[in-house]
Every structure is written in C-alpha cells, then in structure tokens.
Design a protein that fits this description.
The protein is mainly beta and 165 residues long. The chain contains one helix and 13 strands. It folds into two domains: 123 residues, no CATH class; 33 residues, no CATH class. A three-stranded parallel β-sheet has the order 1-4-7. Strands 2-5-8 form a three-stranded parallel β-sheet, with no helix packed on it. Strands 3-6-9 form a three-stranded parallel β-sheet, with no helix packed on it. The longest helix is centred in the first third of the chain and has 6 residues. The protein is globular.
Length: 165
C-alpha cells in the first residue's frame, strides 16, 4: 500500500502523538515499522523526549530536536545530540526484523547516554536474555483509540502483570 491509502493513514503509525498537550518520553526501545507505508514515530506538535532508542525502520516525523543518543537505519534523525544515523541494522542485530539480540560488536553497545547500551538492553531495568520476567510490573497489552470525541472520551485497555510471583 502507498502512504496515501486509508490503511497507512490510520494504522501505519508505530508511535503517534500529535497534540501540544501530550508529553511523551520514549526511552530504551527498538522501534520498527515494516509495513512500508507508515511512521516509526509520528510526534509532531508534542512535547517529546526520546533517548537510547533504535529505529530499525520507518519514518520519523517530529517537530522537536529533543532526541538524544538514538540510532536509525537511515537519515530519519538529525545529526548531533549523540544520534547515530544511516546504521546498517545487519551490524546491530542478530537477524533484523526477526531476532533483535545485539551482536557482540553492535554499534548500539555502549553508544547510549552515559555509555549504556541503546535499545532494550540498556537503562535502569535492561532486558536480560534468559532471565525470564523483569522484576518490575510490565504492561503486556496497551490499546487506545487513535481519535476520540469530548463526549465519549478516551477508551484505553491495559493488561499488566505484577512479575512478583
């Protein structure tokens, strides 16, 4: 499908926030939009902070330069702030699009803010291979309408697990 189709316009966004009343932090993620018609990030007119993410594929539409230590597969990010652009994902992941484990010599290792790994393997609560569940509660499903009315409000469905059992 091409980017003008209804499917791409309404279902092609990876992360979408387009309102000045929205503040969003996107930290330590692997973001990929492989449907060839949409955005990995569409965050125009929003208050955003993005750090230590790997954008493996997809378009980034933004109105802020508040992107720090992110990596992208092409020129979606601007230069500066520790961002890495035009990175071959075959040098980052074991098998891009299928196996997102970092390669031993991945450019994402140690390239995040304060020398942490980019993506899900860095930060205060990194994903640990073979460990099982993280020690903190996890959201396992998040569903929200992309358009709402004042009369109906925003309907959100969240499923989480405690991970303490």
């Amino acid at each position: 499908m091409h980017s003008g189709s209804t499917y791409c316009r309404y279902y092609g966004n990876g992360i979408y926030a387009s309102n000045s009343n929205i503040s969003i932090s996107i930290i330590h993620n692997i973001i990929s939009n492989n449907n060839n018609c949409g955005y990995a990030l569409n965050v125009k007119n929003s208050n955003i902070y993005s750090a230590n993410n790997i954008v493996a594929s997809g378009i980034i539409s933004r109105s802020s330069d508040n992107f720090w230590y992110n990596m992208s597969n092409s020129g979606q990010l601007f230069s500066g702030n520790g961002n890495l652009r035009n990175i071959d994902m075959n040098k980052v992941f074991v098998k891009p699009g299928i196996d997102f484990h970092l390669l031993e010599n991945s450019p994402a290792k140690g390239a995040g803010e304060d020398g942490v790994d980019m993506g899900i393997y860095g930060g205060k609560t990194p994903f640990i291979d073979g460990f099982g569940k993280p020690a903190i509660p996890s959201i396992i499903k998040l569903k929200a309408d992309h358009a709402v009315s004042k009369s109906e409000g925003l309907k959100i469905e969240i499923k989480a697990r405690s991970n303490s059992e």
